[in-house]
Amino acid sequence: MTNLYEELLSALHSVWTRRWIVLGLAWAICLAGWLVVALIPNSYESRARIFIQLDDALAEQVGIGVADKKRDIERIRQTLTSAVNLEKVVRATRLGDTIQSPKQMEAAVLKLADDVKIVSQQDNLFEITATASNSSFSDAENAKLAQDVAQKLIDIFREENLSGDRGDMVETLEFVNQQLKQRERELEAAEQKRSVFEAQHPEMAQGGAVVVQRLESSRAQLRDVDADLAAAQSALAAIDGQLAGTPRSIAGGSGSGAQGSLARAQAELAAMQSRGLTDNHPDVIAARNQIAALKGPAAQEAASGGGAVNPAYSSLQSIRAERQANVQALQSRRAGLQSDIASLTATAISDPEMAAQAQRINRDYDVLRQQYDKLLQDREELRLRGEVKTEREAVKFEVVDPPTTPRSPVAPNRPLLLLGVLVAGICGGCAGAFALSKVRSVFSTTASLERATGLPVLGAISRNLTDRGRALRRKRLKYFYSASAALGGLFVVLLAVEFIQRGMVA
Questions:
Q1: If 0-12 CB within 10 Å is exposed, 13-18 middle and 19+ buried, where does residue 266 land?
Q2: Are 156 and 78 within 8 A, CB to CB?
Q3: Contact 252, 307 (CB under 8 A)
Q4: Contact between residue 108 and residue 90 where contact means Cβ atoms under 8 Å apart
Q5: Minimal CB count within 10 Å: which of 108, 276, 410, 501?
Q6: How many helices (H) and strands (E) does the chain have?
Q7: Which DSSP category does 96 fall into?
């Protein structure tokens, strides 16, 4: 810690002994830096805010939704800073006074694109910011130029809003009208072609295309009937399976007779199986043998009318009859469709080329007719949308804050830069003096000399000045302090000039 303190004292001593070098370097650095700061042009910024109105009930009714309006506003915001619009701004302001060639215009447009910003603060509120920092203009002229640029951008926004949509809608309607006229001519040609064909082949005109349409319709109906018939036959097979496993009659309430015994034996067998007895268990084998022995007498008893009628069997019989009737009806309909298809196919085969030509002519006519009707409907919708946009101004806006007149520059921060140059000059002078002390082999203390040589230092001789030397030293210090104060005074003067210039702009 002691060595560090000694090194610090040594550095300060070496700088102080070369204080005139420090002062000279500080003056040189400050003069050069302040000159550079003075050459930096001031930048003045003008701001304006515009409010976009999106609410229009009639626009919503004709299909102009909020998304469409926002898309239009975003399109205007993006195209507002396009090269064409920025060139209009350059020509309408003082920026175009010195433009004499296309290359200069391109450079001015590129610079203006960096100086202009349009920011969306909310969904319907935009802020326009214009910055002017032309070195050939004065501060007052740059401030006025920033305001003019912002105002011109608002004027262009108004022109885009009032006439842009109207011009686009007129061009769209003209294009749709051209397409509509073309479809109308094609439709008239198709109608004339169909009329000529009908005059030459009246029999095909009356039934040729109809035959083909009926044939396609019959085939589609046949496919549907086949699917329904397959489902009905499957349902009939299922009900037949249920009937096969359902007895026609059941035993009486007392449970007597062969059928009652068979039912009790089957119940006992089911109880044994539910207890977990396997098929090899003696009780299970005996129950199965008993069931097998009772099946014959039970069947004879059922055939002779013994026991009560099974209601489940009767219900299944009625369901089967209904499904069987459905299957027969579908089979009859299928046969009829097959007969119609055969007759229609024979009719079409008799003159297939003529039938195909009649079908092609009618198909082309139908397609053209649909396209014409669709275009006609689209044209009316576009016309209504255009009237709503132009007459009611679906996108309205108002200037919330007009372009402000800049009172002070936004850049550069000249007072801070002047102070920074002063600090840099002082630090640079000190650094130069310290570097010079390191180049020359001079030792400020005996300890540093002892460390450098490795030899013991016996003592040091103090410097004694005469009265004349002391007076000369005081005189030089007076000059040094005066020069230092002059540097600080120049800094204060520059600050005062800067604030005076700002006051002149305001």
A1: middle
A2: no
A3: yes
A4: yes
A5: 276
A6: 16, 6
A7: G
What value, to the nearest 5°, has the Cα angle with vertex 203 and ends 199 and 207?
A: 120
Query: Residue 31: is its pLDDT beyond 90?
Result: yes
Query: Which residues are bridge partners to 116 per DSSP?
Result: 130
DSSP 306-372: -SEE-HHHHHHHHHHHHHHHHHHHHHHHHHHHHHHHHHHHHHHHHSHHHHHHHHHHHHHHHHHHHHH
**Low-confidence winner among 3-7, 248-252, 491-495 (lowest mean pLDDT):** 248-252
Work out the average pLDDT over 450-468.
74
Phi and psi at residue 98, to the nearest 5°: -100, 10
Alpha-carbon gap, residue 487 to 495, rounded angstroms: 13
The predicted model gives 112-118 an average pLDDT of 86
Domains of the chain: 11-40+412-505 (no CATH), 44-177+393-401 (3.30.70.1130), 209-367 (1.10.287)
Round to whole Å and give the CA distance between 243 and 220: 35
Would you say residue 276 has pLDDT above 60?
A: yes
Q: What percent of the chain stands above pLDDT 70?
A: 73
**What b/e string do you get for 10-45 counting C-beta neighbours within 10 Å, with b at 16 or more?**
bbeebbeebbebbbebbbebbeebbeebeeebbbbb
User: pLDDT (tens digit, 9 = 90+) per residue, 426-457?
Assistant: 999 998 888 887 776 666 666 666 776 777 87
Residues 6+ apart with CB under 8 A from 387: none
As given in the structure block, the two tokens for residue 200 are 């030459």
SS3 119: strand
CA dihedral 420, 423, 425, 429 (to 10 degrees): -160
